[in-house]
Amino acid sequence: MMRPLISVVVAAGVALPSVATTAPAGADAPPSSNGRAKLTEPLVHAHRGASGYRPEHTLAAYRLAVQQGADYIEPDLVMTRDGVLVDRHEPEIGGTTDVAAHPEFADRRVTKQLDGKPITGWWVEDFTLAELKTLRAEERLPTVRTESASFDGQFEVPTLSEVLALRQQLSAETGRTIGVIPEIKHSTFLHEAGFDPDVAVVEELEAFGLNRPNAAVWVQSFELTPLLRLDDELGYKANLVFLVSASGRPYDLEAQGDPRSYTDLIAPASLKQLAKDIDGLGVEKSRVIPRRSDGTLGTPTTIVADAHRVGLDVTPWTFRAENQFLPVDYRVGTDPATHGRMGDEVTRYFEAGVDGVFCDQPDICVAARTEFLAR
User: Fold this and answer.
1) Active site (annotated) includes residue 47
2) 89 catalytic, yes or no?
């Protein structure tokens, strides 16, 4: 598979009209040539949108992220009862919507097994799209991100179709190709519930002319099975990213009795095999630069070099500006919600050779990249 290079231009703030219609096949291809060897600038992925400033996974969060200069927007995908792909971080939505304030849905609160763990709440797959559209998004970290929480109750839960239409619109408004990096959430869970998100993703991308080798699209998953299926069976033609946690193993492999852990899967010999199907790794950032026992940022590992050796890109997650998420030596003051030196932290990862970064505050990462490239 080929990898799209997106030329980097920091966009000015723009007022955006309503969501646009479907793009024709072949529209807005990346302006530069493809291939990892041609990638000279790390990309900035807006993690769930500009989620440090607006409730995550809303069209408003994506608009702001692109205005701040993000190259890619990231929707997380789950499915409604009537089989529509929608944009939520998890299938349980008690913490990211106002569903608890809707008495008509009180009896929908149930306990389910999610990847082998009991979780109690409200589940997207128990709502039709029409019902879900009566809910409004809420900030997941309201005491930490008070600015974002001030927008609670204003935004709907978007469908993937709406996100893809907005991506097309933002590309036209800014004059640059905006990429999309959707994540299929809990594929095993959804399949067990009778859904097929893998097929649905391909169908949506086809409808927007984005299922092609040069599209600015990367589909992600923490599970390996959907990625292999997309590449080998479903006719998916764009890029694939295997997401890697700091520990543990993919739930699909666990359910299949496969003992391999994430650590096993990113060993050099395994990466060579994975590279036959996938195009990049989205790794928890400690896999690139771990923290020392005192909480300070340590020394880079070999993961970037190992991945590049077999042609895989590496994009660590997640960079968040608040002190509580930063290494000890990058914090400012003692308030856990105060912004520390996230720009300096992300620069360490640019220096380590990563191909992109997932950021909750894209403006800070874009500014850090600009300064890094100007050296």
Assistant:
1) yes
2) yes
